[in-house]
Design goal:
Elements (H helix, E strand, L loop, with lengths): L13 H32 L2 H38 L2 H37 L6 H12 L2 H15 L5 H24 L3 H25 L12 H4 L2 H33 L3 H37 L3 H37 L3 H13 L4 H17 L3 H22 L6 H5 L1 H25 L1
Helix pairs in contact: 1-2, 1-6, 1-7, 1-10, 1-11, 2-3, 2-4, 2-5, 2-9, 2-10, 3-4, 3-5, 3-9, 4-7, 5-7, 6-7, 9-14, 10-11, 10-12, 10-13, 11-12, 11-13, 13-16, 14-16
Length: 447
């Protein structure tokens, strides 16, 4: 199979960073359309309760996605470093080990999730009128986890050698399929949240199958050969993937655990706040994928150049990606503020829901440039192979501050706006401490 690849080790950087990032941005947007389609179509053709049910699942789905993304990032960094160093045998061994890990992780999450669904929903304090719909959606959604995990790992493998287009094409087709199936199952058959979850699972299956076929047909060193899965599986490589990927996964999951606590606080404010928050988060996460794509780009580019021991180029990559990420986040904030009323008026016909959704945009998206700073610094550090310290910093600054805000401040200021202020506060703390560590780490590399 012949696919465009980007040479990360030589030539100008800014244009290659943008060329690498653009398919990732589009991939992220279409990936989010899986959940966005569920929210929008349920809101239009089902009920506010069904829409709120998907919103309650958003932090749980995010928790799983962060696990898969973090673990797959470990494979991405190792393969990129191996390619940069010219160690093709290590790259091939990492590919086969990563695929085994992807299958095992996806199946484990699908099975374990079935047992914890009810206790988690109880802990979130999901209202009784929304609880059955929320539970049905999440349990059916879990059936697609092996496909979602496989998709994330194969995408990471292809990214490591400069191919971001193949995952985008696969996800684009699957996203269109998901929208069509959502309309069929929800609007025509009237299956509600169950139909939305089944549509997502079938679309994930198609997406994973397309990427698996692409990897099987790969002509280079990253080709997957099923006959070599047992022979090339390496416990040592698995430990290295986990050493980089697990802290990254935990960092993202801690971020989402704090959001689970926030979701419980949101639930205490009523069904309209729940629906508004779900709608605003859908827009919020789509806009954020520009920053997320630049983070993935930063990790991969630094990984390859660090493998080639070109430290000066690594530092230039970090600076460029940081500048691009902050610029994109500032643009997103301005765009959201200018268009939010029109967007949310199409999502919901309830003026109160629209007003509450706009509140989240004003308190969160408008300040997302602060989040971009911390996330890009973390991404750069992962490219060098440092994942533990950024995860620890995220735990105390993001998770810790948000939990403290919910339990100490929110009870006395029980409004949606006051609750949302914990987002910019946590981002300021994370950016400050990660900035200090990043500068220290770079000085160490120069030594």
């Amino acid at each position: 199979m012949s696919t465009p690849r980007i040479d990360m080790l030589q030539g100008s950087l800014w244009n290659k960073i943008l060329a690498f990032s653009l398919p990732l941005i589009l991939t992220g947007i279409f990936e989010q359309l899986f959940n966005a389609a569920d929210t929008l179509i349920l809101g239009r053709f089902a009920s506010a309760a069904a829409m709120a049910a998907v919103g309650n699942n958003t932090p749980l789905v995010g928790l799983i996605v962060y696990l898969f993304l973090g673990l797959s990032l470990g494979a991405n960094v190792l393969i990129a470093q191996a390619l940069g160093a010219g160690n093709l045998r290590a790259a091939s061994r990492t590919v086969h080990t990563a695929i085994v890990l992807a299958f095992a992780t996806g199946i484990a999450v699908a099975l374990l999730g079935q047992f914890v669904t009810v206790p988690v929903m109880d802990w979130l304090g999901v209202p009784p009128d929304v609880l059955p719909l929320t539970t049905i959606y999440f349990r059916l959604f879990l059936l697609g986890m092996p496909f979602l995990c496989l998709y994330n790992f194969i995408s990471a493998i292809l990214r490591s050698r400069g191919d971001t287009r193949t995952p985008f094409y696969a996800l684009f087709e699957a996203s269109l399929l998901n929208i069509l199936l959502d309309l069929l199952f929800v609007a025509v058959f009237g299956w509600g949240t169950a139909g939305a979850a089944i549509a997502t699972d079938l679309s994930l299956l198609v997406c994973a199958a397309k990427l698996l076929r692409a990897l099987l047909r790969e002509s280079g060193i990253l080709r997957l050969d099923p006959r070599l899965l047992r022979a090339c599986f390496s416990p040592a490589v698995l430990r290295r993937i986990l050493a980089i990927g697990l802290p990254s996964a935990l960092q993202g999951m801690m971020f989402d655990i704090a959001n689970l606590v926030l979701q419980a606080a949101i639930n205490s404010l009523g069904e309209k706040v729940m629906a508004a928050s779900a709608a605003a988060f859908t827009v919020e996460i789509i806009l954020y994928y520009g920053v997320f794509a630049l983070n993935q780009t930063c990790t991969t580019f630094i990984g390859q150049n660090y493998g080639a021991r070109n430290l000066q180029r690594c530092r230039r990559i970090g600076a460029l990606c940081l500048a691009f990420a902050v610029g994109v986040a500032l643009f997103n904030g301005a765009f959201a503020l200018l268009t939010m009323h029109t967007i949310f008026s199409h999502i919901s016909s309830d003026p109160e829901v629209v007003l509450l959704a706009e509140t989240r945009i004003e308190c969160v998206v408008a300040f997302s440039f602060l989040c971009a700073i911390g996330d890009t610094l973390s991404a750069a550090l992962r490219g060098y192979g440092s994942s533990v310290i950024p995860a620890v910093i995220a735990f105390f600054t993001i998770c810790g501050s948000r939990l403290a805000w919910v339990f100490l401040f929110f009870p006395a200021h029980h409004t949606f706006r006051d609750l949302l202020l914990c987002y910019p506060l946590s981002w300021v703390l994370a950016a400050a401490f990660l900035g200090i560590y990043y500068r220290t780490y770079l000085r160490h590399l120069r030594a």
